[in-house]
Amino acid sequence: MSKIREPLDRRIIFLLVFIGVALPIMIKVGLPIETTENVEMVYDLVESTPAGSPVLISFDYDPSTKPEIHPQAIAVIKHALKKKQKIICMALWPMGVKMCEQIFNTLEEEGIKPVYGTDWVNMGYKSGGAISLKAIGADFRKVFTQDTNGTLVDDIPALHGVRSLQDFKYVMSFSAGVPGIKEWVQVGHDMYNVPVSGGVTAVSAPSILPYVNEQQQLTGLLGGMKGAAEYEFMIGVPGTATQGMDAQSFAHLIIIILIIIGNINYFYNKKILALEEAQK
Amino acid sequence: MKIKIPLLITFITGLIIIVSEFIPAQPFPKISTDLETWVMVIAGFAMLLGLLSLFKVNILKIKFKVPNWQYSIITLASCAIMIALGLLWGTDKQVGILGHGEGIQNVLGVKPFDYLFNNIYQHLAATMFALLAFFIASAAYRAFIGRTAESRLLLIAAIIVMLGRTSLGSWLTGFLPDGSFFHLPNLAGFIMKYPNTAGQRAIMIGSGLGVIGSSLRILLGIERMWLGGK
Q1: B96 to chain A: nearest residue by CA?
Q2: Which of A79, A179, A191, B178 is a plausible cystine mate for A183, CB 3.0–4.6 Å?
Q3: SS3 (DSSP) at A33
Q4: Does the distance separating the beta carbons of A7 and B39 come in below 8 Å?
């Protein structure tokens, strides 16, 4: 009988991952959160922007990536509101409009009640990706003639003085793909020289990181839930990302343990096969 | 003529856009801006086209009772219900054809569209994405094997980044002095900032050159696949 070890049943792996994610959510572990340079850059950008400045936040994601990106957007918006900046929301993804609405509804439930039209406004979805960004860059009011409630741009106090992209102090894109943060860098920063920053999912962060460079094409980047947790830590308001970090840490640990078991099995089986070959 | 005219339009339009990037004098910026506005309008219609295509494909599946045709009924019904609810009572603060639907809001707490979005769509979408964690764990166990020197290097880098990008990494090497290179978040940061960025830039430059090449082929009429040819 061969001594070859069979691989672990997939159901056991799934069960381990489930336990690893579920337990830390139920039992708080409270692992430390350490800030990184990229998140500090985003924080500094928001922190250094004067009160009353119009800032553009683009919701370029949908509910599938909400657990990772939503906490980033909430943390940044809370910070911007605290600094009394005027938040202009828009979306390059159709569902982004709902994400924006949900955030401000959540803030209202938490007792943060910015005045619609004065402190923030939702301009809605715009199709066309990079092309619409170019048009926004040239003339914001030509692309967005009214907000999602049908109020004309001239009647929205938050938009007073906003004519083009260059009138925004920064652009923050919360992005889960295309169109998203890459397009904002190419148009917002590279064409109109507006500071661009934002957040992406952990899996897409490596492909966006090259834009965080000496030219500051991107002014920092929030990567996944970790980025959101770091931002929450910096503004001193723990949220869902801080809660989720323990679960993510344990899920990663389980995956690493599984990789180690897989490798031990592989080398063990290789050795057994070699011995069996030699015996033949 | 059926081929030459579209090719000519493509060439002239592409040329105007390229020229407008280098010559900011009129009429190029105006033509370029107008063309960009057209793209936004066309992109809007593309969504409508997608919707019509979705209905056509699924109606045909139901008509010819192809395997799993029952799911097409669910797709079409879901789509139709969401469109109808959005049109009738709007979403959030936006008004619909029948107003805000205060009566329904009193029962559901929110508008019908928002109710279905918040309680069904959102959770289904998040679930699909969350399932990745399980499949990645299973795939990593089976495929992430250090067979060669390169794969071992990749394996070590992956483990460092996986630990360094979580709170666990900070905790595990928290005893090291501040700013230590071997502190896991710092080590992960180094991997992400230098080897990863170098590799990503090489890919980006390569794909960028590829895009320029493909665009030129289309503009010059060498590449004609987009015309429906072979």
Answers
A1: A149
A2: A179
A3: coil
A4: no
Q: Concatenate the DSSP letters of all residues of B183-221 into one string.
A: SHHHHHHHHIIIIIHHHHHHHHHHHHHHHHHHHHHHHTT
Chain B residue with CA closest to A12: the answer is B138
pTM, two decimal places: 0.90
Q: Looking at the partner chain, which of A36, A64, A101 has a beta carbon nearest the beta carbon of B129?
A: A64
Residue B151 lies in a domain: yes
**What Å distances lie between residue A216 and A211, A212, A246, B194, B199, CA to CA?**
7, 6, 32, 16, 19
Q: What is the pLDDT of residues B192-220, one digit of tens each?
A: 999 999 999 999 999 999 999 999 999 99
Which of A175, A229, A230, A248 has the alpha carbon at shortest distance from A207? Answer: A175
Q: Domain holding A114: CATH number?
A: 3.40.50
Query: Per the domain annotation, does A88 fall within a domain?
Result: yes
What tokens were used for A19?
């336990």
B18-41 pLDDT, tens digit per residue, is 888 888 888 888 888 888 888 888
Please check whether residue A32 lies inside any domain of the structure.
Answer: no
Q: How many domains does the structure of chain B reveal?
A: 1
Closest in A143, A210, A259 to B200, CB measured:
A210
Q: Tell me how far apart the alpha carbons of residues B38 and B29 are, in angstroms, rounded to a whole number.
A: 14
| Structural domains counted in chain A | 2
Window B:85-124, CB contacts with A under 8 Å:
91-95, 114, 117-118, 121-123
Q: What is the DSSP letter of B97?
A: T
Say if B150 falls within a structural domain.
Answer: yes
State the nearest Cα–Cα gap between B173 and chain A, in angstroms: 11
